[in-house]
Specification:
By secondary structure, the protein is mainly alpha-helical. It has eight helices and no strands. 42% of the residues are buried.
């Protein structure tokens, strides 16, 4: 089920962000996948098997960046309390914005990929109740189990996530064609909009809590 601290529009937006970021990375960084640590880990194993030791450094750097960012985001999120989603989304937006100035060619340079990896590591700590919120494979497994159990509310949750991710990936193509590297700023703007939604939601929840007490 959706995290009650994250309003529905913000939850849909963050999955659109994940889809858009995936698509941009596949378009501009086929060897270093800033959003796909499973693929990077498989590449490491392949390079070890082929004896390509020099190719390990950038892959390890991307994974280390993702891990460090998600760890720090978890630490920050714990201390942010009710403001966790807002803080995490703003941090993600800042990192995504920081990735854009370095993206001066058709292929994203290493620095851009590292910033995007950090942003995605942070984004996946947006919910206190669920880690790795944009991990599609695990989400599809949960959705299939929910459908088998007749839990159609949870099944709908999974369907919305998948649909939003696909929509975000589709949106990334015209953004990339018309905006070029500034498509990364469009993604950052989506994250900032999500932060506005979550901040408003947190204020409403606090107001209701005060009224009830």
């Amino acid at each position: 089920m959706f995290d009650r601290k994250i309003p529905f529009p913000a939850f849909a937006l963050l999955f659109m962000v994940a889809g858009a970021t995936d698509a941009l990375i596949y378009l501009h960084s086929r060897d270093l996948l800033a959003v796909y640590m499973t693929g990077n880990s498989s590449h490491i194993g392949r390079d070890i098997g082929d004896g390509l030791w020099g190719d390990l450094k950038p892959l390890l750097a991307v994974i280390a960046t993702f891990f460090t960012a998600t760890t720090l985001a978890a630490w920050i999120g714990i201390r942010a309390g009710r403001w966790r989603p807002t803080v995490i989304l703003l941090l993600t937006a800042a990192l995504m914005s920081a990735s854009m100035p370095f993206a001066h060619s058709d292929d994203y340079p290493f620095t851009t990929v590292l910033f995007i990896a950090a942003a995605m590591g942070v984004l996946n700590q947006v919910s206190a109740n669920e880690s790795g919120v944009t991990f599609l494979t695990g989400m599809l497994v949960k959705t299939g189990r929910a459908f088998a159990e007749g839990n159609f509310s949870a099944w709908f949750d999974g369907l919305v996530r998948w649909s939003a991710l696909v929509a975000g990936a589709a949106l990334a193509i015209p953004l990339d064609q018309h905006l070029g590297r500034h498509a990364l700023l469009a993604v950052a703007a989506m994250l900032a909009l999500g932060a506005v939604f979550t901040a408003g939601h947190a204020l409403m929840r606090r107001h209701r809590t005060k009224q009830a007490s």
